[in-house]
Amino acid sequence: MRVTSRGFLEVFIQQTRTTDKFCMNAVSSGMRTKCTCHGVSGSCSVRTCWRSLPPLAKVGAALAAEAARAGPLRPRRHTGRHVKPRLRYVTPSPDYCERDPAAGSLGTHGR
Fold first, then answer.
1. What is the pLDDT of residue 1?
2. I want to staple 88 with a disulfide (CB 3.0 to 4.6 A). Which of 36, 73, 102, 108 is the partner?
3. Helix axes 56-68, 5-28, angle to 10 degrees
4. C-alpha angle 78/84/90, rounded to 5°?
5. How many degrees, rounded to 5, is the angle at CA 33 between CA 32 and CA 37?
6. pLDDT for 19-76, tens place per residue?
7. What is the DSSP letter of 68?
8. Is it the case that residue 90 has pLDDT exceeding 80?
C-alpha cells in the first residue's frame, strides 16, 4: 500500500482528534457532582450543586496507562468494522534517563 503525504496528513489529523478525545474523556469521566445545603440549622432550604474536576494524579495515571499501550501511527484500511481507538505516536520518544550522545542527552541515570 502506497502512502502519500496527503494521506498521512489525514491520518495524522484523525489521530490528533482521537488523542484529544482521550484527554477529554480522562477528565470528564472522573468529574463528580458535589452539593452543599444552606439554611437555618441545616434545614437545607437551598441546595447548591456543582461539578468538580478529578484529582490531577488520577487523570495523569489514566493518561500514563493509555500512553504505555500506545503504538506507532500507521495508515489503516477501512474494513468496515469499528475498532476501539488507541493513542498513537509518529516517532518514539527518546529515553532521557540513559546517556545518548546522538540525541545530545547526558542522561539522568545515577543522579
1. 44
2. 73
3. 140
4. 75
5. 145
6. 777 778 778 888 899 999 888 877 888 999 999 988 888 888 888 888 788 777 666 6
7. H
8. no
**What grid cell was written down for 104?**
545530545
Between CA 90 and CA 21 the distance in angstroms is 18
Please name the residues in contact with 84: beta carbons below 8 A apart, sequence gap of 6 or more. Answer: none
Short-list 87, 94, 95, 97, CA closest to 16: 87
DSSP string, 28-87: HTT-EEEEEEESGGG--SEEEEEEEPPPHHHHHHHHHHHHHT-EE-------SS------
Judge contact between 51 and 31, C-beta under 8 A. yes
- The residue ranges of every structural domain in the chain are 5-72+85-89
Q: What is the pTM (predicted TM-score) of this model?
A: 0.52
What per-residue confidence (pLDDT) applies to 79?
Answer: 64
